[in-house]
Amino acid sequence: MEDTFAARLRDARRVRDLTQEGLAELAGLSAQAIGLLERGVRRFPHPTTIDKLDKALQLTPEELAAFKRLAARGAVSPTATQAKPAGPAWVVARQLPSANAGFAGRTHQVDQLTDLLSGTPAQPGSPIVATIRGMAGVGKTALAIQAAHASADQYPDGTFLVNLRGFGAGTPVSPLHAIGQLLRGTGVPADAVPGSLVEAVAALRSRLADRRVLLVLDNAHDVGQVAELIPAASGSAVLITSRATLTALPASLHLQLEPMPADESVRLLETIAGADQLVPDAPRVAELCGHLPLALSVAGAWLVRHPSESGAELASRLEDESRRLDLLGVDDLDVRASLSLSIEQLNRSADPLDHSAAQALTLLSLSDAEDFTAETAAALIDTQPADADRLLERLTDLHLLESRAPGRYLFHDLVRAFGRELAGRLSESDRAAALDRSLALYLAVAWRANEMGDPKAARMAWPDRPSAPTFPTFAHLEQALAWIDDELRNCLALVDQVRTLGGRDELAAGLIVGLYNYFAMRGSMSDWLPAIDRVTAGRIDRWTLAQLHADAAIALAEVARYDESAERFGLAREVFESIGNLRGVSLATNNKARLLIRMHRYREALPLVEHALAVNQQLGNERGLAASQLTLTEVYTELGDWSAAEAASTAAVELFSAADDESGAANARIDRAWARAKSGNPEAAVTDIVQAMGVLDVLGYRKSVSDGHYVLGMVYAQLKDFDSAIEQTEHALEVALDVGDLRREAQARLELGRVLNDIGEPDDAVPNLEFALAFYREHDAALVPPTEDLLEAARKAAGA
């Protein structure tokens, strides 16, 4: 019998009548692991593996002794020994530094690598190759060393470490120099190392043939630096670390190493500094370190050096972004120094793209935006989107930026802080110019969306309204709104940022005014309102101030803060009157009348509507007249004068149509539909609503579509078609939920509860009515009594 571990294990398994799968299950190992051991791929299993096999096979003392002897390092079969090539005596190198006692976390990644290193190559005749890539300080080298130590017993012919200096002081190590280092490490005399790259590559491949060695190639610059260092035969393995993306290199595994998960970050901090000094501030310290292992190590070392200081004190110091990198540097652990190596590499490069990428990182770091696209980056950098895309990809390749979604790029917090330090070398005018370009882009998109949605709106009179953007371009309104969807947080962050520069209050306010169409059609008023209030406090034009008051009033009404809304409509009207802007006066007056109707103050609303009608008549403003007629419709509807409501709404439809205002005419048809239904003509009402919703849906006015479904549901309920009534009201509720409109949600739930109770389904009615009642108790006291009565009836029916 061949006296190898593989043969002994195979015979022991067969004697006990076990399959590989059966033995694997008994031993708590994988069937693949058993196969690798029996094929001799893993010749030197770990002692814990021997223990598992002993328990599973119930080995005799003699068998266990043989297993341990053959599993020991250096126990190579005679045939393997004979197969070694001739040449200088082989030196079993052990070049790895000692394992890091403070290593914590990364369990999944260590397992990935050790499983790979214990397996077989994906391609016969090829070595196992794994690359580990990630940003500076993310722990690539530490992970590679940890995995190499864990797998060292699989490679009895040596473990080698070569620092390729791809990113660092001086020039990267040449492939020829690296091969010479490897050959000398195996025992080849220095004077026997070939002087040409071709001969050196051949010598290395011959030297490593039929050997089982593990190479750790640390800090690689690019694929070209490492390609010739990889053995040509199976049996060996290579771990490569780099800040660059080496996916062009054939490998069994390309591992992207990200900052640590929060729990692992805390564990690493506590391993270094001790839990007592950190609790309960460890999570905040870890967050301020960006969960970056290098930064966490420095923070832990700081606490060790300052035993009287608490985690809270460290967190407080790290909160100051301008000082953060100063704190995260101690002895040879320095986040700033580590990051600067990547920038130096770009600046030393002969490729003009790399120089531009270094400049781009500096300009991008100025923005408070959460992330960037090629378009938003192009504005900051002052280039075209296609060029910006190449720069973003280059920075991502070097892990100076991250890309978590297609086409979107973001900074790690510490990289942004480093970029801002670099930006401090720019002139104040250059820094401001970058943010001005960004502001100009968002202004152009916002006002383009307004123009596409309602080109005749009164707000289009803003004197600083920009022309359409050079990029991006939009074929239709939905594209513009979708772009703003993706960029809204960045847009609002920029508004706050540019206001700190001084002299830009009017432009910041103009951007908020320009976002009206977006928020009216699909945005959340809870996002818009605080932004309005912040820019209103700036040094802005009187027209802009009036428009912001009017917009705030609209937003407040949508979130059912009616008293505040009425006050802001009043302020808007006063400012418009002070500058002689009659169109603004009519709009503020008419909108306040609509608000008073919603507040059930119909008698107060009527004179305001009449005043708005008179002003619009004086101006010859068809849209204004149409809006006032629509408000009259609401007054007559609430007063129960259905014929007057139908007449006013018909006039509104005609006036809006004459003014080419499709959405206005559609909304007027919805209001007319309810008047027609109450006047005994529900069939005409259904026709009106269906036609109106078709128009509004195409135009993208989702909140108005919700209103259409709501009214159509009430019409069907009047026709006793309760299934259709429930279906339409549920559609109204779905849209309200989708756009986050609590007022419309309460309105739909109230009607849904009413219908469900009427058809004998009180159990389903109760939760809908409970929601509506809670909302009206906070926002609309007049609707509380009827809602309470409905809820009481539904509860009684449910309990019967």
TrEMBL record:
Please report the residue spans annotated as repeat (TPR). 706-739
UniProt xrefs under Gene3D superfamilies? lambda repressor-like DNA-binding domains, P-loop containing nucleotide triphosphate hydrolases, Tetratricopeptide repeat domain
Asked whether the UniProt record includes Transmembrane among its keywords, one would answer: no
**Keyword Ribosomal protein appears in the UniProt entry:** no
Q: Which SMART domains match?
A: HTH_XRE, TPR
- InterPro entries reported for this sequence: Cro/C1-type_HTH, Lambda_DNA-bd_dom_sf, NB-ARC, P-loop_NTPase, TPR-like_helical_dom_sf, TPR_rpt
Note the CDD domains from the entry: HTH_XRE (cd00093)
UniProt KW keywords? TPR repeat
PROSITE patterns according to UniProt: HTH_CROC1 (PS50943), TPR (PS50005)
Please list the residue ranges annotated as the HTH cro/C1-type domain: 9-64
Q: Which domain of life is it from?
A: Bacteria
Q: Which is one GO molecular function term here?
A: ADP binding
- One Pfam annotation, family name? HTH_31
Know the name of this protein? Tetratricopeptide repeat protein
